[in-house]
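ok so for the tutorial part 2 we go from a plain amino acid sequence to predicted structure tokens. step 1 is just haveing the sequence, like this:
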Amino acid sequence: MANKKNKKEKDPLFPDFLDNEEQYDEAKDFWKEEIDEWSDAYDFPVEMNYQTGEEEDEDGNPIFDAYFPSHGKSLRINQYDPDDEDAPEFDVSFEETELEGVDDPIDEMTIDLILNEENARRTRHLLRSWTEADMNPEQMEEWMEEEE
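step 2 — the prediction. this is what the tokens look like for a chain of 148 residues:
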């Protein structure tokens, strides 16, 4: 039973999102709903799609982005085609970035992934540490090494 569950958790969600506009929109909505739920539950203000805006390439880079003004941090999620052999399964990086309308540079966490239930859960876990625990990039990297 455990093997079936583990396999199902790795099955890609919205596997044709790059070729199917409806799946692309569903993938975007998936992340929006995840962040909405989290924002409401923890009462964190969030500004979504600060980079993509109205005009985007629909290439999954990013599929979703958000700015957390109360923390001065941002999140960028790049979603990759599950059939792309070179695509990262799950990777996290941090960099300082500048946002229009924000005076000082902010820290951004970028998650590159193939979307499946397991990677969505990993993203939720990272997001909580990134915002609720208010870790900086160095602390996040140390914490992620300990979690492995």
